[in-house]
Design goal:
heterotrimer; A alpha+beta (265); B alpha+beta (407); C alpha+beta (403); B: 407 residues; 2 domains; 6-stranded mixed barrel; C: 403 residues; alpha+beta; Cathepsin D, subunit A, domain 1
Chain lengths: 265, 407, 403
């Protein structure tokens, strides 16, 4: 399958990755003990928890920038654990009604214009994570910093006063492509400000920015996530959360093919 | 009759030099036909080998239906039985097992979908020349987590030897995605697009673990002692091993385009040989006629002293036959020498790459029985056949006419 | 010149010998010439057939497309470029194509597909596309698609079914549409048969939002042999653009290499043929000259200078050689011309890569005259010298001995 095949599902991949990463919002406001810096494990745990949730329902906007075009999509998504995800595209008009359902390792698309549900074959499903600004590992295999990395505090040259800086190195043997990851979090809230991903040779490959912290369903989290690849010119993906509910009961009906087809315009 | 045969033989040696020269020339002609034949055989074998030894193998066995969608569950049935069969097969030189599936390879820069092969690092190099195609780094080691990728893939992923990549495949047992980290052990250049851009090789043990296929085998690659075995006895092999839900195919079935091309080569060579034969035959005709006309006076004398026309005819034909035999002996000796030299010291046609620069070996000539039997026989038959015309002429001519021819 | 007169009269005098010698040169020439014409003709014929089938003789792309294909590397205004191409007489026709990839399905099962947008008329002119159809019919309107026959099998569908495609358009939006399968094709390439999804250019452009663009322009020439010339011309033509012009040797590299291997095989055969022709001529000339030893002896005895004897022999041989070459050329010309126009009908058409080879074609070219001529001339002259010199030097008494 050529590169064209991969780019074909750019959007879909982004959606998934986005959803999986995004809606994890168990508030993790850790408390720091009078110490200069809090226990690092707590900080890492808080960062991880930012990506964990039991269930979620969100509405968000995704801005995708490529050298050839820029688009903004409005999406509504439901998720349960890391296994079930349902996404519906609300805007723009051309894609309105398109849906994607993922249950574990199976994935289906619904295309309103042709009124067809298409199952994505396993070979293409993996390829669907390619080419997007978000990576395969971000979504499909949930890596936690706690379990899969070794971490330590660091003091970079341009350190700000109220920030904590962590350096995370993948544990040996873990199927992670990164050499190491640098994270900056706010000292009080443990909410990340940015994550910098480096390859083994120390080259900066991509940066994820977190900003515009707001309250959603009683929890505070960055509503804006920006992923900027460092080696590809002109690519950027920005996620904006508009609404979010967490750990809510979601009916089984949502994660069905039937639901995929049903769309009230 | 015996008498004339003897006389014929002695006649041709009367003018030793001339006979030798003529014999040599016909002999060279024969030798060149033999040589052409031998080198074409060598060329074809070279072509076949360069394709089959790149990775294909002379034959492959899969589970029926595997090649349609590369479903990891479709492993070769009853492999232990199959193994025994192959081991005891006198035509099979060696074989190896492989595991194959779709997957993705990712680096910090990019992700690509690929065909992932799990190979036996010890057995594989004897069947496919992959280890020779490696241009950077080294080969695979049974133990470690090395992966071999092609130059173009390495470029896309922006990795070099020693770099870290992650391979993902679908585990058939759990249905989950299996991901493992590997390090680029080596980068190869096979000059075959598919192999260089979208394939990766890891040790079969690791592949099996990731796929959850235990001792399963997806593909058995077989190499025969005789390169031509697959094209000659392909059907037998297929029938013999396509049992218990498996499908055995030889390279003509796996790459039919190759077979067609070889067939075309055969056809072309046929034409070449015909042309060469034509030239030689013409030379023989010419020679015979010339030598005959030269001796018209002599024949006149023979007739004048009482030789019957029929006997004269036989004499001429026998002379031609003797000359043919003499030439054939010379030719075969010369041809054997050339082919022998050619089989040891091959011809290197530089600038020709067929499926891999590393695979161009020199083209060596190959002995085939027909070169020593068919071609000489044809020359003999033609020479004798051609002599009938002048023989008739000689038998018919008037004696007085003949005696008048001097210089 | 006395020697020339003498040479001619000698030749005419001994008709038999002249005819034999001349004939061997003539036949050798014709066979060698025919072989070259046939070998070159077949080679070019095969390349022509193969490239005309789908790829074209020359392809034009946006810079870098061949190395790293991308949906965005397009040729703008292909129709305008096409009309410029058409003004070149050597170019027979051209066809624009659009390439992408997507996911297709008829019922439940989906598969990856290669989207290929073709201009029905131009494609037909350039590659006779409709010949590939094994079932159904060619394009006649919009909303139609031709798919590879293996793809139909994988999707468990056929002519008349509706097939949905899902891909990404050039503006980033999702491209999805439904088309009717109007036919199945056998492209000769098993991979394409498993993934080929052919849309009309208009439909493809709409689906992928690539108006007035193309990824590739395939060009066929009247005469394949002009490929290098025309490539240079076009490169000059488009020098001030970012377009890349590539001849078949570049974009069909694997095929080219295979053909080269074949060609080199032919060279070996050529050497053999020439060798055999040479030794045949050698034989005849040698025999005829040796035959005349006595003659030379007589000449020497009556006072001819040795030098003149040698000259005489050389002149005779060259005149004969030239005459044979002239006649040989005429015959070879007509023979090769016939082969070039009509060819030899093969008993059973050889099916190769989806192409039917029905004829073995020949060719008329310079090489087929030059090489045999050189061979004949060189061989005959080289050979006649030694016995002539020998005769010129030996004592007449010795050479004239009859018994």
């Amino acid at each position: 399958m050529g590169k064209n095949t991969r780019s074909a599902l750019d959007l879909v991949k982004c959606l998934f990755i986005v959803i999986a990463i995004s809606v994890c919002v168990t508030p993790a406001i850790a408390q720091s003990n009078g110490d200069n810096r809090p226990e690092i494990e707590k900080v890492v745990a808080a960062i991880d928890k930012l990506y964990r949730h039991d269930s979620s329902h969100t509405v968000m906007e995704m801005e995708i920038h490529t050298p050839h075009w820029s688009r903004t999509l409005k999406l509504e998504a439901w998720s349960e654990g890391m296994d079930k995800t349902f996404i519906r595209i609300l805007q723009p008009q051309k894609e309105r009604g398109m849906g994607t359902l993922r249950i574990e390792n199976e994935m289906w698309n619904y295309l309103p214009k042709t009124n067809k549900v298409m199952k994505i074959p396993p070979s293409m499903m993996m390829s669907s994570w390619m080419g997007s600004d978000f990576k395969n590992n971000d979504l499909v295999k949930e890596f936690t910093f706690t379990e899969d990395y070794n971490f330590e505090y660091v003091e970079p040259a341009d350190a700000k006063a109220n920030r904590l800086y962590l350096k995370c190195i993948p544990k040996p043997g873990k199927p992670i492509v990164w050499g190491h990851v640098l994270i900056a979090v706010k000292k009080e809230s443990f909410i990340p400000e940015w994550e910098k991903y480096y390859d083994e040779h120390g080259e900066l490959m991509r940066v994820m920015y977190f900003s515009e912290v707001e309250s959603f369903d009683g929890k505070r989290l960055p509503s804006k996530m920006e992923l900027v690849p460092q080696t590809k010119e002109g690519h950027k993906t920005i996620l904006h959360y508009i609404e979010a509910e967490f750990d809510l009961p979601i009916t089984k009906r949502i994660f069905t093919l039937r639901n995929l087809r049903t769309f009230r315009r | 009759m015996r008498f004339y045969l003897k006389m014929a033989w002695r006649n041709i040696f009367r003018n030793r030099k001339r006979t030798f020269l003529t014999g040599l020339i016909i002999g060279i002609g024969l030798a060149s036909i033999m040589f052409t034949d031998a080198i074409v055989v060598g060329m074809k074998e070279n072509m076949i080998r360069s394709v089959t030894s790149s990775f294909l193998g002379d034959a492959q066995i899969h589970r029926e239906g595997f090649q349609e969608a590369f479903d990891s569950e479709k492993t070769v049935e009853n492999y232990s039985e199959l193994q025994k069969m192959l081991e005891s097969d006198s035509n099979v030189e060696r074989f190896t097992e492989r595991v194959a599936c779709f997957g993705t390879i990712s680096s910090p820069s990019d992700i690509n979908s690929i065909m992932l092969y799990g190979i036996d690092p010890e057995k594989e190099p004897e069947i496919s020349k992959m280890d020779e195609a490696i241009i950077d780094g080294g080969y695979l080691n049974k133990e470690n987590n090395g992966v071999l990728i092609g130059t173009k893939l390495a470029e896309r992923l922006e990795v070099t030897t020693g770099d870290r990549i992650v391979l993902s495949v679908s585990n058939v047992q759990t249905g989950d995605l299996a991901q493992n980290m590997f390090r680029v052990a080596g980068i190869y250049n096979m000059q075959i697009d598919e192999m260089d851009t979208s394939s990766a090789f890891i040790p079969i043990a690791q592949a099996r673990k990731m796929l959850g296929v235990k001792e399963g085998v997806h593909e058995v690659a077989v190499k025969f002692y005789d390169v031509q075995y697959a094209s000659r006895h392909g059907a037998e092999f297929s029938a013999h091993y396509s049992i218990a839900g498996n499908k055995a195919e030889t390279w003509p079935q796996l790459v039919p385009q190759m077979k067609k091309m070889l067939d075309m080569t055969d056809f072309s060579v046929g034409i070449v040989l015909i042309i060469v034969f034509a030239v030689i035959i013409f030379g023989i005709i010419n020679t015979l006629f010339m030598s005959l006309y030269e001796r018209i006076f002599e024949f006149g004398v023979l007739r004048a002293v009482g030789t019957r026309a029929a006997s004269l005819k036989s004499l001429i034909v026998f002379e031609a036959a003797s000359l043919a035999v003499y030439s054939i002996v010379l030719g075969v000796l010369l041809g054997t020498l050339i082919i022998y030299i050619g089989s040891i010291h091959g011809m290197n046609i530089s600038g020709v790459e067929f499926a891999g620069a590393t695979f161009t070996e020199e083209i060596k000539t190959v002995f085939r029985l027909r070169q020593f039997i068919l071609h000489p026989l044809l020359i003999f038959i033609f020479t004798v056949a051609v002599s009938f015309y002048p023989a008739r002429y000689a038998g018919r001519m008037s004696i007085t006419h003949a005696l008048q021819k001097t210089l | 010149m006395l020697i020339l007169k003498l040479a001619l009269r000698n030749l005419l005098r001994q008709k038999r010998r002249t005819v034999y010698t001349g004939l061997s040169m003539f036949v050798g020439f014709v066979l060698a010439g025919f072989f070259i014409g046939w070998a070159d003709g077949t080679y070019n014929h095969m390349i022509d057939k193969f490239t005309r089938n789908r790829l074209g003789h020359i392809q034009i792309h946006q810079e870098g497309y061949l190395d790293k294909p991308s949906l965005y590397k397009t040729i703008g205004d292909p129709e305008k470029i096409g009309s410029r191409l058409q003004s070149n007489e050597k170019i027979e026709s051209w066809a624009p194509r659009i390439y992408s990839a997507g996911l297709v399905s008829i019922t439940e099962k989906s598969a990856g597909a290669q989207i290929i947008g073709i201009d029905p008329e131009r494609e037909e002119q350039t590659t006779s596309f409709s010949n590939k159809i094994v079932e159904g019919k060619y394009f006649s309107g919009t909303g139609e698609v031709l798919i590879g026959k293996e793809l139909a099998k994988i999707l468990k569908g056929g002519v008349g079914d509706e097939i949905a495609i899902f891909s990404q358009a050039a503006d980033g939006s999702i491209a999805e549409n439904l088309y009717t399968i109007i036919g199945l094709v056998d492209t000769g390439d098993p991979r394409l048969n498993r993934s080929g999804f052919y849309l009309s250019l208009t439909d493809a452009r709409e689906l992928l939002v690539l108006y007035n663009q193309a990824h590739e322009i395939a060009v066929t020439l009247d005469d394949l042999r002009q490929v290098d010339t025309v490539t240079e011309e076009l490169r000059g033509f488009f020098a001030d653009t970012t377009l890349d012009v590539a001849p078949w040797q570049e974009f069909a590299e694997e095929f080219y290499r295979a053909m080269q291997a074949d060609k080199n095989g032919m060279y070996i055969s050529l050497v053999v043929v020439i060798l055999v022709v040479a030794i045949t001529i050698l034989n005849t000339i040698l025999m005829s000259v040796m035959e005349r030893q006595k003659e030379y002896g007589v000449l020497k005895a009556i006072g001819t200078r040795p030098r003149n004897i040698v000259w005489m022999v050389i002149t005779e041989t060259s005149v004969l050689a030239l005459i044979s070459i002239i006649f040989g050329s005429i015959v070879t010309f007509f023979l090769n011309l016939y082969m070039a126009e009509h060819g030899l009908h093969l008993g059973t058409p050889i099916n190769w890569g989806g192409i039917q080879l029905e004829y073995m074609k020949g060719e008329v070219n310079f090489r087929s005259f030059f090489l045999p001529a050189v061979t004949v001339l060189f061989t005959s002259l080289a050979v006649c010298l030694f016995p002539a010199v020998k005769a010129a030097r030996t004592e007449p008494a010795v050479t004239m001995r009859v018994f």
